[in-house]
């Protein structure tokens, strides 16, 4: 015997299905980073940029294992310089040779190592300083906020590249000084971003609860505020690595960065521009290395920004 399905039973079944779907949705999006990874995978440009960055890192890290044997020592001049200098791209020298007979591709690969180190270390320095300054300004406010933000305004009032050049002129050339100059002068942007992020979360109930339970300011910032503000810092720091690489290349192009004969993308471009009309590959190919790497960090940063934006969750 068949019994009719009542409206209440149908409604109950719909509720059960809704609860089941909600439960599965919760399981699929357990954390902010899990959601972000799912959205990032849909961004083809960001994934392509990440693959390129990983490729550049692997090539730079493993360079000592194969570059000297396959392409030659990047700093060794040719024995017969007249015959080996400024050769066009070929199977033996895919990027050609420079004016001293050195393989350009080997110098580009070792230059990638220097550029990546500068980008990561300089960004690490500026991020560390910016996080401390932004936390002090946003959490304590008042005089701290005024002093730190006005100091940031003073730094930002100067053109960034000219400010870096002036600092390098004072402390001298060299890779260590490039770290210091780019790292120290890059903190105001990080501080502003982190300050804004903290201001948006510091008045939440869980922060008030931690404060009422006697948690110290350092613990509140480290355990409650920072984890909920770190997404914007990850995005900005990723883009900032590309900016630091570009700044280092500009300094080396002007003769104020990496000291020759150590290879740097900026010095390769500076050398190649002398032969732009006759051997354009000497400048164009290192320039493409800078362009693609900086663009990759920018595209990855854009992808991370979209992926970490909770407003994009249902998009």
Describe this structure in words.
The protein is an all-alpha fold and 315 residues long. Helices cover 73% and strands 0% of the residues. α6 (104-140) packs parallel to α9 (175-185), α8 crosses α9 (175-185) and α11 (205-212) packs antiparallel against α12.
> Radius of gyration in whole Å, from Cα?
26 Å
What overall geometry do the principal axes of the alpha carbons give?
elongated
**Mean pLDDT, rounded to whole units?**
84
> Strand pairing plus helix content: what structural class?
mainly alpha
Helix content: over 70%
Distance between the termini: 48 Å
- In total, the number of strands is 0
Which oligomeric form is depicted? Answer: single chain
Unreliable stretches: 7-14, 16-29
Please give the count of helices.
Answer: 15
SSE string = HHHHHHHHHHHHHHH
Main sheet attributes: strand count, strand direction, barrel closure: none
Strand portion: under 5%
Membrane topology: Multi-pass membrane protein
Main location: membrane
Subcellular location: Cell membrane
Domain ABC transmembrane type-1: 112-301
């Amino acid at each position: 015997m068949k019994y009719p399905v009542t409206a209440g039973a149908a409604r109950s079944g719909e509720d059960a299905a809704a609860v089941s779907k909600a439960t599965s949705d919760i399981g699929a999006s357990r954390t902010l980073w899990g959601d972000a990874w799912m959205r990032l995978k849909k961004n083809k440009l960001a994934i392509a940029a990440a693959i390129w960055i990983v490729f550049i890192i692997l090539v730079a890290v493993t360079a000592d294992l194969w570059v000297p044997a396959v392409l030659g020592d990047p700093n060794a001049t040719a024995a017969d310089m007249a015959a080996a200098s400024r050769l066009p791209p070929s199977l033996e020298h895919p990027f050609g040779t420079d004016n001293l007979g050195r393989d350009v591709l080997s110098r580009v690969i070792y230059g990638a190592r220097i550029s990546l180190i500068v980008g990561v270390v300089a960004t690490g320095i500026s991020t560390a300083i910016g996080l401390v300054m932004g936390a002090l300004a946003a959490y304590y406010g008042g005089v701290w906020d005024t002093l730190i933000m006005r100091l940031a305004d003073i730094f930002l009032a100067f053109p960034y590249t000219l400010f870096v050049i002036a600092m390098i002129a004072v402390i001298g050339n060299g890779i260590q000084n490039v770290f210091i100059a780019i790292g120290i002068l890059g903190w105001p942007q990080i501080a502003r971003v982190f300050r804004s992020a903290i201001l948006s979360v510091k008045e939440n109930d869980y922060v008030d609860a931690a404060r009422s339970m006697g948690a110290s300011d350092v613990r509140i910032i480290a355990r409650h505020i920072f984890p909920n503000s770190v997404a914007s810092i990850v995005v900005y720091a990723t883009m900032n690595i590309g900016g630091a690489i570009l700044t280092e290349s500009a300094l080396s192009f002007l003769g104020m960065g990496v000291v020759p004969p150590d290879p740097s993308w900026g010095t390769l471009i500076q050398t190649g521009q002398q032969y732009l009309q006759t051997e354009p590959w000497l400048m164009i190919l290192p320039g493409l290395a800078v362009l693609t790497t900086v663009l990759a960090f920018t595209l990855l940063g854009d992808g991370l920004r979209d992926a970490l934006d909770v407003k994009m969750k249902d998009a």
